[in-house]
Amino acid sequence: MAIKTTSHQLPYLGYGLGLRVEHYESLLEEPGNVEWLEIVSENYMIPGGRPLIWLEKFRERFPLVMHGVSLSIGSTDSLDDDYLARLCALARRVEPAWISDHLCWTGVQGVNLHDLMPLPYTEEALTHVVDRVRRVQDVLGRRILLENVSSYIRFADAQLTEWQFLAAVAERADCLILLDINNIYVSAHNHGFSPLDYLDGIPASRVQQFHLAGHENGEQLLIDTHDAPIIDDVWQLYLEAVRRYGRISTMIERDDHMPPLAELLAELDYARMLAKPLLQAAA
Amino acid sequence: MSLQEFQQQIMQAVLAEESPRLPELHGDARADAATRMAIYRNGYRVRLRDSLRTEFAGLGHLMGRRFNAMLESYIEAHPSMHYNIRWHGAGVAAFLGYSRPWQASPELAEMASLDWAISTTFDAANEPVLAAADLIHVPADAWANLRLRPQNHLQILSVQHNVDAFRRAADSNSKRPRLRRHAKVCHLLVWRHSLTVRYRTVNTDELSALTGAIKEESFAALCERLCEFHEPADALPRMASLLHQWLADGLISSWSMQ
Questions:
Q1: Distance separating alpha carbons of residues A77 and A121, to the nearest angstrom
Q2: B185 phi and psi, to 5 degrees?
Q3: How far apart are CA B256 and CA B149, in angstroms?
Q4: What is the rounded radius of gyration, in angstroms, for the C-alpha atoms of chain A?
Q5: Nearest-CA neighbor of A121 among A180, A70, A168?
Q6: In this complex, which of B7, B81, B82 lies closest to A76 when CB atoms are compared?
Q7: A55 vs A50: CA distance, rounded Å
Q8: A112·B126 Cβ contact <8 A
Q9: Distance CA A93, CA A99 (A)
Q10: Is B55's pLDDT higher than 90?
Q11: Spatial separation of the C-alpha atoms in residues A179 and B39, rounded to whole Å
């Protein structure tokens, strides 16, 4: 597929969706306004079978990007060589526009918590993560994107804010940023910081992709479930992000309670409609 | 405290049945530290439970209300060690075979073995599938030395209960069948045909011939194996019948001469 290019370091892809099994058939039959797809890398790091057949069909029709959940870039365990080898093999197969994962750790001592655990925002953690991002980028032969995660726990010894930490990782390791707008909103609520301060603290030149998603209202905290429609406050924060960073490849990431494809296409249209006046004014 | 020590403490707090108080974590007016940590503790267990439910559909059908209690005890006993959450299920059959009270019900481990075989066959490596037409040009006098190579991914399970009926019922949302113990051990073949995972029982003569094929024995040797179950005159027709079925089932990937 031909890819529109912009002044960003990587191609601008437009508006996309996370590829999910529930939408395989409808996406091929009536893709609507979907311009690109994000795959969950681990779902296709497998020897063979039906998922890879589907993947090939989507690869022929859409620009793809790879989004992982298990790189565990912040873990103090050694980098998982087997994981990296499989990630490289998948990248050779998919030829994605880019590869992303999360600024987090998923376990230590060989255990996997299957969660995006936040790091303590300390100089020690920063040095550790920067070194590992560089090593991963050397292995992959390309820069990666790191995504901000939603978080619930608060660290007594934090020396940096989350956005200072993310920005410093990106600058020092020379990687790019995937900003999940919903995650900023959720964490801002849970930790009592301003989401606009967060946006202001992220260097625009590093931002390559946006995620948009929904969340759940817990009794005391917001829970990042990615299983609901995007709420108005998150749409407003998205506008603030567009105002600051301009034209950024944007996608809707729904992970559970999967609605019909048409519902996500409508959300994607809404994102386009919201951003259009700002982007036209900036052009 | 180092980053490594910090991560070990957090992980242990997620895994522990009762979360310890961690002075490194703060609460605030919105939620205290324990409430915040509980989101990770609950999330870990919910994700593993949901994944196991998906992978062990037959076991869920067989165990009914006991299924959740078993999953909880397995999750507490076995932290996940693989980046792909599906692989946490690799130890379920063994767990059911040795842990109380489940070990007293051997059908549970058998059921888990079948569910897991189906799961791992789903995304096994792709291999070519031999068609009958591919064998047309084998000269008549060469058949004795012909070696058939079955698909690498096929699995043969030994069971004493009708666990395949439970898996079938689970997949079709049918009523739970009655559990039956076979008079003697039966064998289930699990494989993938045209991207669809299939399973069926195999008779002892087919099991013997299939085992010979897996060991790369010659076609003549496979016929000799069948002589243990049939009159010599009937062995070749039976082998021809089995080969016909194996090809129709997509069980054979290639052939060779040695």
A1: 18
A2: -60, 135
A3: 8
A4: 18
A5: A168
A6: B7
A7: 9
A8: no
A9: 13
A10: yes
A11: 23
3-class SS at B113?
helix
Which residue type is seen at A248? I
pLDDT tens across B64-105, in order? 999 999 999 999 999 999 999 999 999 999 999 999 999 999
pLDDT-derived band at B22, boundaries 50, 70, 90 = confident
The Cβ of residue A262 has, within 10 Å, a number of other Cβ atoms equal to 11
Residues in chain B, how many? 258
The helix (H) or strand (E) run that includes residue A66 is strand A64-67
Inter-CA distances, A185 with A81, A214, B59, B118, Å: 34, 10, 40, 41
Alpha carbon of residue A7 to chain centroid: 20
Closest CA to A3 of A36, A32, A27: A36
Q: Which residues of chain A have pLDDT under 70?
A: 1-9
| Contact criterion met (CB below 8 Å) for B165 and B159 | no
pLDDT at B214: 96
Q: What is d(CA B219, CA B236) in angstroms, rounded to the nearest whole number?
A: 10
CB-CB neighbors (< 8 A) of A80 in chain B: 83
Q: What is the pLDDT of residues B175-226, one digit of tens each?
A: 999 999 999 999 999 999 989 999 999 999 999 999 999 999 999 999 999 9
Contacts of B1 in chain A (CB under 8 A): 157
Of A159, A158, A176, the closest CA to residue A167 belongs to A176
Please tell me which residue of chain B has the smallest CA distance to A83.
B83
Q: Could you give phi then psi for residue A150, rounded to 5 degrees?
A: -75, 145
Residues A184 and A162: their CA atoms lie apart, in Å, by: 10
Of B31, B80, B123, which has the smallest distance from its Cβ to A47's Cβ? B123
- The ipTM of this complex is 0.92
Q: What is the DSSP string of B155-206?
A: EEEEEEE-HHHHHHHHHTTPPPPPP-EEEEEEEEEEEEETTEEEEEEE-HHH
Query: Closest chain B residue to A109 measured between Cα atoms?
Result: B8
